[in-house]
Amino acid sequence: MSITQLERFLPENALPFLRKWFGEHYIHIKITRERNSKLGDYRRMPDKSHKITINATLQPQLFFFVLTHELAHLLALENFGRRIAPHGAEWKHTFREMLLESIAIYSEDLRPIILKFSRSPKANFMASPDLVKYFHIENVDDETSYVDDLEIGDRFIYRKQTFVIKEKRKINYLCKNLDNGKAYIFKPLARVEKLT
What we know:
Layout: H1 15-22, E1 27-32, E2 40-44, E3 50-55, H2 60-80, H3 89-101, H4 111-118, H5 129-136, E4 144-146, E5 155-158, E6 161-169, E7 172-177, E8 183-186, E9 191-194
Parallel strand pairs: 1-3
Antiparallel strand pairs: 2-3, 4-9, 5-6, 5-9, 6-7, 7-8
Helix pairs in contact: 2-3
């Protein structure tokens, strides 16, 4: 897929950044169906070409963000060598620089979130509650909430089972399954249906 074919997935004015970052590299971009396990993926191929996959269902700003993340892997490898950790200091430095360079691509309400994230980029998109909440605004069912938005003692339904929040442990929540009596740990950004 050529860079110009990516345009329909991207926010306005993103192509100049991609042209610069792609440079002379041979990169095979594959747009995939939605995957729950990941938003994108980077692989260096045996022939020294590069393969990036990205979910087709992402909003344009998130698509660009994920593509920037994956391209940062390629550029970090090229600049620092193949012995670097996949999400180590070299990748973080590269991703941070790319985010700051392209900050104008993002909408004004998203820029402060991107700037905050860029201070210490995370390997996993889900590790940034601000980004997760921002990009789920349009797709969220009004009847669902994040566990993080509930209070101790609130009841909720998750996968057709009823739970109650018992306590917060650092960032996660200890919850009791009211159907079987067992305790479970929930991440703060788990999507649940609050019971009133």
